[in-house]
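so i finally got all the pieces together for this one. its two components total, 652 residues if u count the protein bits. some of the lines might not be protein, just check the labels. i wanna see the whole assembly predicted at once instead of chain by chain like last time, that was a mess tbh
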Amino acid sequence: MIEIKDLHKSYKMGSNSLHVLKGINFTVKAGELVAIMGSSGSGKSTLLNIIGILDGADSGDYTLDGVPIEDLTETKAAQYRNKFLGFVFQSFNLINYKTALENVALPLYYQKVGRKERQKKALNYLEKVGLKEWATHLPSELSGGQKQRVAIARAMAAEPKVLLADEPTGALDSKTSYEVMALIQQINDEGNTILVVTHEEDIAHMCKRIVHLKDGVIVEDKKVEQVRAEQYV
Amino acid sequence: MGWLFDKDLWSEIFHTLGKNAFRTFLTMLGVIFAMIILVLLLGSANGMSNGFDKLFAGTASNSLFVWGQSTSEPYKGFERGRRIRYKIEDAEILKRQIPEIEVLAPRIELGSHRDIVTVYRKGQTSGSAVYGDFPEIDNITKKKLVEGRFLNNNDIENSKKVCVIGEETYKLLFDKGEDAIGEEIRINGVFFAVVGIYKPNNNINIDGENAVFIPFTTFQKAFNSGDRMGWMAIAVEPSTKVAVVEKDIKTILKNKYDIHPDDERAIGSFDMSEIFNNISAFTNVLKGFSFFVGIFTLLAGVIAISNILLITVKERTKEIGVRRALGATPVIVKRQIVVEAIVLTAFAGLVGFAISVGILSILNNLWGSGDDFPFVNPMISIPQFGISFLLMVSLSVLIGLLPANKAVKVKPIEALREE
């Protein structure tokens, strides 16, 4: 699903440049649930941004679902993001003047799905994350965990190849975190490929594989025994 | 252009604008005020123009007056300083030879020009101008009658001893509230029955307020004026320039009365159309100026919209970033912001238009009668509104592109960066 070879990325900070990713080699197969760990500054968010086509690499190859991702125009990048990727952010990033349902339906709008179809699908995904009754509520009327579940529903609504979650539990208490992880596990159980960036050990162990990043290189890549989140809920 | 009919785009835009109603309202204020100023300025200029039109409604604009003066050049054995006196037959000659003349009303005055004659009635007197007229004069300088009627053809044919008097004359000869119609007044020993009283037009006042009009034919008999004619009021058909007819008339008259062709003083004339041209030039400048000022105010209003959109784009950086992460292409983002600008401008323009039309109709109710000062039916015309509206909307497209480009310049990753 994801193939990354010898990926380099550096940022220019004034006169000096900061080498963030120093040759990443990384493969994710369909249906995997991977945790990307590392302290801040390790390059984990940069890696996720490149995988999410929100940022470009300086050198190296990146293939997503067999499609080489390189030298994309903004328009093409937007289309690929819409088609291949679903995003979940630490701070949810829901559009605050849109209801839960409208937020979930937004990626479908950009896929040019018809209104009725859109509403139906969006409601379906809201039901899946257990928030059907909250469809007409604004994000400000939802709790943090509910917001993140709406965000997950939004990410899944477009039926992406890969779900990218950047610190999905970073802004949540541990109980809510486990609820959200239970949801992510459930989605993974259905065969979806998911990447989770986190710095929390317990969250990482709820995935099936942990990739450790340190100073821009992968220092550890291991399969783990998945801890099911339901037992903590 | 298929997106124009994309229901989703429109609902997305109205949704965005509607959910941010206060911001939307603030954004629109500038254009609303600009539109109000534009429409009020233009409407007032139009009202003024209409007011002048109404003021001069009684006077045929394409008209001239011709009278006799004294020669300034000796010619064909005549010395200079000879007084030119027209004959009634001249009216027929001119009408026959110059087809462009629509109406020609001959007039004769008692005494010389601007002379005043004492008019008597039961011991009361008035120093008035006395004119012998044809009813046609009413087609050139309309008399506002407050009572009775003006002279008619029957009066002319039967040389009736009737008269129409000015309001000022009435005040001098009659007591307040006294019925004057049918009463007789005496001029040079001859009695005339009053058939009408006129009110002076508060515009170009050729005849004065204190005057007595009697039928031309009656004048001839009563005051023994024979075939003399004092002056002529002439209306020219609308498509012909008064100056052309004026020249033709002078040529014919100079020929007939043996006046030197270069004599500028012998024939007096006054071209009414010049006054009207001056007034319409004035109101046109006024209209043009208001349009100019209004359009620039509008420009300022539209720029204000652009400014606020720039600010809101900055505010919405995150939202736009999310949208782009979810698959909104730069074109979609730009289109949404530009269409937002257009919708805001157009809606604000219409709101401003509605408000200002309301204000104009209130002004119209207060002062629109045009009696006190020239201000009648102040309203802007459909083409004027169309042009301003079109200009405004095309400006908003150009100016909406500014924030739109700014919105897509920010990379989604920068927009989404956690604070």
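The radius of gyration of chain A is 17 Å.
The helical segments of chain A are 44-51, 74-84, 100-110, 115-128, 144-157, 174-189, 201-204.
anyway lmk what u think
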